[in-house]
């Protein structure tokens, strides 16, 4: 039972007893009886006033607690003139002012942090105490290619994304450089932070693909241009001297040898020019194209070379047009390089399949699988598994597809088929 309730019951009970005693003692003397009743009524009114005085601070406290429970920090009380109550009001108003300032400061910081996370070029996923995703910034949504609704309140395994499953298996608190099959490279950090005394996880994913490719192209491009410049200058001068001296040679065999050397120099000059062109792939000139036409033309073009190798080439395109904004010449050259590589991996009796659907183009072959040690280096410049290869075919393919904004991968699947996949939005 509350104190004020007990006090009120005590006050009423005490005055009832006193009234009964006064009646018993002075019932024969009306003057004294009336006087005692007046005194008791005055005492009762005084007790009631004291009850209200005791009750007022409780009312203020109750109103303040209700406002705090509702997170309303704008309610303040005005002084009443009662020194004790006013002291309580002063302390409450001071506390409310501090809480309001802290709440405003926290809201401003949270707003700034939210804007910073949304604008960050680094993907961020935040998990709750049970390991479910509670927050994902726009970069994470783009990287994982999942709508926000498909990420929130999901466990990483429930999202069914190979990148996310791989990243969550990394050791915590240690930044890791992760390379995917193809050209994707990421810097990943899985770490924890404390929230209300308990640890929660977050995942930072920084995509380094474009940055590394740009640095790589600047490095080898400078070397190639320097080499091409020096070789071309030297070959021009040497060929000029050799062409001048050739007619003066009395021996026909010497003249033929000189011409062979001149031709070889010219081919070397052309070779260096082609190498230099690798780093100068022009931006795509986009037109609206039906990819079915490109795929079917490449299938026909690569049919005769496949026939010589006794390799079957099949083309599977949908009945409806697959429209895409792309540079037709560059896209055709890309597809020719991909099919050519697929044929070179095959032997007699193998197959190469070109499959097109509205969102994807795949070139599949069941020839020699990709060696495991090269699976993550296929698009490295000048890397070739062929004795006579120069390692620039896939590099050109990579640059053309990146310039178009397509995503792609090349890997041997568990069923033994090697698949080059190109995807677009």
Automatic annotation (TrEMBL):
Its EC number is 2.7.13.3. The keyword Membrane applies. Signal peptide: none annotated. The chain crosses the membrane at residues 7-26. It is an enzyme of class 2 (transferase). It catalyses: ATP + protein L-histidine = ADP + protein N-phospho-L-histidine. Keywords: ATP-binding, Kinase, Membrane, Nucleotide-binding, Phosphoprotein, Transferase, Transmembrane, Transmembrane helix, Two-component regulatory system. It holds the Pfam family PAS_8. It comes from the Bacteria. One of its GO terms (molecular function) is protein histidine kinase activity. GO terms for biological process: phosphorelay signal transduction system. Residues 226-425 form the Histidine kinase domain. This is histidine kinase. It comes from Spirosoma oryzae.
């Amino acid at each position: 039972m509350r104190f004020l309730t007990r006090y009120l019951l005590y006050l009423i009970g005490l005055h009832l007893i006193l009234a009964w005693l006064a009646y018993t003692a002075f019932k024969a003397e009306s003057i004294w009886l009336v006087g005692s009743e007046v005194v008791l009524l005055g005492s009762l009114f005084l007790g009631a006033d004291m009850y209200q005085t005791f009750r007022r601070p409780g009312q203020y406290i109750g109103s303040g607690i209700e406002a705090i429970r509702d997170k309303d920090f704008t309610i303040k009380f005005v002084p009443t003139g009662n020194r004790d109550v006013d002291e309580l009001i002063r302390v409450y108003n001071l506390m409310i002012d501090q809480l309001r300032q802290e709440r405003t400061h926290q809201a401003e910081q949270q707003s700034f942090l939210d804007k910073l996370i949304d604008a960050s070029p680094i993907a961020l996923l935040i998990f709750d105490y049970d390991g479910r995703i509670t927050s994902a910034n726009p970069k994470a949504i783009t990287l994982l290619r999942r709508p926000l609704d498909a990420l929130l309140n999901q466990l990483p395994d429930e999202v069914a994304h190979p990148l996310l499953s791989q990243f969550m298996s990394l050791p915590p608190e240690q930044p890791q450089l992760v390379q995917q099959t193809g050209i994707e490279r990421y810097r990943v950090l899985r770490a924890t932070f404390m929230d209300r005394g308990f640890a929660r996880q977050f995942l930072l994913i920084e995509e380094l693909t474009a940055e590394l490719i740009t640095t790589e192209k600047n490095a080898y491009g400078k070397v190639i241009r320097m080499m091409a410049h020096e070789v071309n200058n030297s070959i021009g001068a040497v060929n000029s001297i050799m062409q001048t001296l050739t007619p003066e040679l009395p021996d026909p065999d010497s003249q033929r040898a000189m011409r062979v050397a001149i031709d070889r120099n010219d081919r070397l000059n052309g070779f260096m020019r082609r190498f230099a062109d690798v780093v100068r792939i022009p931006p795509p000139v986009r037109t609206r194209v039906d990819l079915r036409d490109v795929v079917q033309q490449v299938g026909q073009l690569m049919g005769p070379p496949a026939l010589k190798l006794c390799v079957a080439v099949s083309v599977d395109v949908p009945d409806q047009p697959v429209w895409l904004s792309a540079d037709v010449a560059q896209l055709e050259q890309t597809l020719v390089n991909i099919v050519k590589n697929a044929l070179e991996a095959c032997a007699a009796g193998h197959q190469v399949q070109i499959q097109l659907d509205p969102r994807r183009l795949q070139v599949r072959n069941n020839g020699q699988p990709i060696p495991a040690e090269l699976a993550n280096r296929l698009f490295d410049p000048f890397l070739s598994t062929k004795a006579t290869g120069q390692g620039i075919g896939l590099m050109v393919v990579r640059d053309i597809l990146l310039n178009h904004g397509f995503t792609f991968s090349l890997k041997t699947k568990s069923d033994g088929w090697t698949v080059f996949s190109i995807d677009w939005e």
